[in-house]
Each structure stands twice: as C-alpha cells, then as structure tokens.
Amino acid sequence: MKHKNLLKLSLLFVSLTLWHSQSAAYQYWVCLDRDLKWDSPNVGIGASHVSFASSSWMNSLSTSVSRWNQTPSNFNYVLSTDTNGVGRGNGQNEVWFSNDPDALQGAPAIAYSWWQCIDYWIFGKTVKMTEIDVIFDVNEAYTPFMTNKSALWEYGGGSRPFQTTALHELGHGLGLAHVNYNYNVLGTDWTHIHVNGANARSYAGEDATRGAVHLYGTEIKQDVAASQWKYGSASGEYSSHVRTVLRNEAGGLISSTVVGGEPVYNVTQGQRVRMEFTYENNGSNTQGVNVGVFISTNDLITTLDSKIGNIGLTLAPDVVFTRQDLITIPASIPRNSNRWLGVVVDDNNSVSEFVESNNATYVRIKIL
Amino acid sequence: MYSLSVKTFSACAVILCSLAVQGHNKPGDQGAKLDDMIKSADAVVVGKVVGVQYAISSDGQRESETLPHTFVTYEVSRILKGSPQQSVITMRFLGGRGKESDFMMVHNSPLFSTGNEDILFVRGNQRAACPLVGCGEGRFRIINGMAYSDVGQQIVLTKRQMLGFGQYDILQEIMSHQVSQTTIHRKIVTETGEGKPEQGLPIGTHLRGAGLIDFIQQRVLQLDPNRQWERLPPIVSANIQLPFTINLPKPTKAKKAREIPVRKQRQTPAEILEENLFKRNDGNPVIRQ
Prior knowledge:
The complex is a heterodimer of chains A (368) and B (289).
Chain A: E1 21-31, E2 34-35, E3 42-48, H1 55-69, E4 76-82, E5 94-98, H2 101-104, E6 109-120, E7 124-137, E8 142-143, E9 160-161, H3 162-174, E10 194-196, E11 199-201, H4 206-216, E12 224-227, E13 229-235, E14 238-243, E15 246-248, E16 256-259, E17 262-267, E18 272-281, E19 287-296, E20 306-315, E21 321-328, E22 337-345, E23 360-367
Parallel strand pairs in A: 3-4, 3-5, 5-7, 8-9, 17-23
Antiparallel strand pairs in A: 1-2, 6-7, 10-11, 12-18, 13-14, 15-18, 16-17, 18-21, 19-20, 19-22, 22-23
Chain B: E1 2-3, H1 34-40, E2 43-56, E3 64-65, E4 68-81, E5 88-94, E6 96-97, E7 102-106, E8 117-122, E9 139-143, E10 146-149, E11 153-158, E12 163-168, H2 172-175, E13 176-179, E14 182-193, E15 204-206, H3 209-223, E16 246-247, H4 269-280
Antiparallel strand pairs in B: 1-14, 2-4, 2-8, 3-16, 4-5, 6-7, 8-9, 9-10, 11-12, 11-15, 13-14
C-alpha cells in the first residue's frame, strides 16, 4: 500500500542490461534429424467424463490448457469431454485420474506420448507425434483452486496446485522434455508459479514458451512478468526452484523467519539491500520496460503502493533473468512493522500484454 | 539459438545429502533416500545391458491394453542386495517400439541401449510399469568408469561422506538412445540470456562407478548385518516369448475439492480500496489513479 510519506522517488538503477551469456534452455526430442512434434499445431485432447465430472476440476484443467494456448507459439490444444472411455494407445489424446499404483509407480502424474519415426527411403521420412495421454494420481494432494495461495505447498498449505502439474504434463504433449538446469515448468512444477496478493497463478514460463515457439512457430503477442521463484538446483531429471532472496549490500543473506510458509527478512530503516526477483519475457518480441520498485503494507503489490525506485530492463524472449538490485529501505518506515518489498514490471503499461496480472510480485520484510 | 554440442557444462551443482529425491514428488514426502531405496528394492544389482527387445502386451481381457513394452536383459556382474544366484535378469518396462514405426515414450521412464552399465534398484518386475525404485531414480549409470544419475548428473561424495548429485554432464550416452533401428536423441538448446546463468558450487568428488558400488554395498551391509537379504528369492526374469496382459488404469472420479477461503487480515480503508481497484482492473497491478 501507498506510503504517503514516501513520495521521494529514489532512482536507483536505470540500467540496460549488457550482460549476455549462453544458457542451456528447453529440451525436446529429435528422430532422424527432425523434431518430434505434431503435424498440426491444433491438437484435440479429451478429459475423462468420469474423472472430470466436477466443474472445478474441469475448469482447472481448462485453465492449464489455456495457458499453453495463450503462449506466442502457434500450438493450440482443443479440450473436450471424453465420454467414450479412455485408454492408452487408442489413437485419442486423453486425460484422466486413476488410482492404479502399478501404472503410476509413485508418481503424481505421468505423460505417455506416441511417436512415428521412420524413413521410407522412397517416400521420405515420417517423424511426428501421434498421441498423448496423461494420468493423474487421484490420491495426490491436488487442489484445482488457485485463489488462495495459503492452501498451496510452499505457502503454508497442504495442497499441490493441479494446474501447474497439468501444465507440466501437457508440456510433454507439445513434445517438450524435462529440464533440470533452469527455471522451467518442465522441472518441478509447483514452485513454478506466480503470486501477487492472495492469488497464485500457473503459467508456461519463458523457457518452455521458447520451446513451444521453436516447435510450432511464432504468433506475435507480448507478455512480461515477475516471479519470486528462481532456479535452485537439479533434483534428478527435474529442476528444483527456490524463492528469490534478500541480501545485504555486501551480498550476505539477510536473516529471516518463516511466516505462513513465506520468508520474512529482517531489515533496518535506511538499510541498503540487494533485492532479487526473476524477470521473464513470455512474449514474442524483446521489450524495453521499466520496473517500478514499491513498498507495500500488504502482500498485494500495485502502483498504488509507494514507489521507491526504478529499474530499466531490456527483456528478450530467451531464458529467465534472475537479478539483484540495490534498494534502500526507506528510513521513514516505523520500526517493528511489516512491509512487502515488491516490483511491478512495465509499471507504465507501455507493453500491451496478453496477461497483465503476472507483472507484480513481492518479498516480505520486517523493519527491526 | 544454438544447439549445444555434447560437452560438460556446469549449469548446476547440487547438494542432496540423500540420493534420488524424485523431483516430481515433494521432497520429504515420497522422495526415496538411498537407504529407503535399498530397503524397498527387491534386489540391487550391477550389470551390463546385453539385449533390448520389444513386445506388445496381449489383448487378453476386456479391460486390458495392447501397449508396447521394452524387455531389457542385463548380464549381472555383482549383486549388492538379493540372492547371489542371479547372473542374468530381464526386466519389462512399459513403452518402447510398437507396431512398425510407432514408439511409445513414458516420460519418467529410462531408455536403455545395449552396452549400458548400470546399478539398478529393482522392484516389481513384470508387475510395475517401470520395475525400478522411483523409476529413473532407481538407475545409476556408469559411463567411462564414472558414476552418473540416469539423466547425467555426476554422483559425488561430499566432505561429510554423503552421496550427492553434482554437475550435470551432457553425454552422448545420456542424450542418445537406440530404439530398434532408429536413434532418438534429446536436443538441448542454448539461448542468449540477459544474465549470468545460475551456477552452484562443486560439493564433492565425482565418484567412479566402482566407488559408488562400494558405497552402496557398505550401506547394504549396515542395513542388513546378518545378511538376511541374501536369502531373498532371485528376481524372476520377464520372458518375451510368453504373452502378458496389462490392465487399463481405470479412470476414477477426482476427489471432491474444497476451496479454502482467504483469511482476511484487518485492512485499512486504503487497502480495501486498492484490492477493489485491483480486482476491477482484472488483476493488472498498474492502476491509474
């Protein structure tokens, strides 16, 4: 929320980022030197009418499908309700819940894909995906709801967001493979999430979007975003993601406690801190944007909050960009008070985006 | 955008004091630590792939599925847990080459090629779709004498003498797989990013394959000092000549979901106004005053 006493705007960084480096990004499968993908970018997929009888689950699946459809790739899932009975290898793309332990092998969900890969030396090569099926474990602690982050893992709750797992598995349906070296929904899914205020939001993310664009071509549309998560480490075949952090000016990690599953960093009035967030360009074109830095009295970051800085960024659609920026905690904030340090990417609405609700996020601080 | 040649890169180096946390599962809930993996395995064996064959399950019953399977035969060189009377084992994995040019991929399941040297935590052969503990997590590769995870992470020994996952190496043996007459490979793409890629610090010494085998053997002996596990029955190999059936994982109704309302904190009038304007703005945080 806005701090009326904090009208002074400290312009800290107006930096065009000049560091460019090579990063490993998305992965996919290749056969006979051709990408394994669908012939057509429009792929029908049926949700079992048994499993998805409830509108809340169907809506949740539909949202995950729409997240892939809204990326700037030409790929498009067409979701329907399957009433004919599901099965693997029946030539139909299907999604369902099951409790079969031998099929699920302890996994919360599994994607099965079918490919054709053959070189008819007279007629040429046939390389394409022909079927995708996804089975979710009905006993996993999924929730279809994203309206209350406190119900979710990592935010103090006991539920796994179904939408993020569905996005992961449906990503295999595009032809994307697991990633364990980058912030990517094809890594650990439930920590690939956007949060501002009480709500959480699932999304495909910059890296996987680039993979989709590579496989199916580009549609011109724009989206920039900020996240409080970043790449952490590799955990087997999956990347694990960790919260972005707050450091002191020298780079040391600031002490913190955990409240409601979220870190609360202990800072002092006027302290210079290194604020870390992840910035993404989920669109088709490079964008020069202003990132407004705000102090809020709650976890909802908007431009109505008190602005304390600006960061100039040039975000290309490639791999995610986690960066630290030096910010001064306003000396006017009373001691023993809680605040949320947040950013709003494109805080002047200069970019017309297909999603505007993923532009802000926060880290909680306590003024000692 | 560039394709990355087969080389080592240090995109990650990771501390995991226990091995094989299944990334797709929440760590701590279902993540199989090394001791848990040993305990839950029917057998732990070291071997070399001497045969990869494909067969399709029979359409035996009304609720069965005809699906491609891969039969992987290992020549066993060492038994770390289980009956010492096992010199060859054939395991059956869901997925693989089907009719003509079809291939079925199970996205958490390993792929095998003749000549692969592995340490395997076997469980549920001929019953489970993937007869390894944690599926791909239950396989360690030995490539050029060094120990790797199924996906190419170095297996390291930390200063505290714990096993961990280290640097991720992109190796030909990890990225490419022979499927019948065709080679498929995983292509990793590099992008020019705005910032320096995240890198972890080396956390231990990359183990040789023999070192990892010895480490696991020591853990087995500590967990089973009386060598009871040596009396376990040998793993019954899958026989590709015999018909087999696979049941359809039946669809079940998703559990009833309850939406937990947001617990409202006491809000100031300004905060209430902000929240209302935010909702009216469809969640766009840029609110014109």
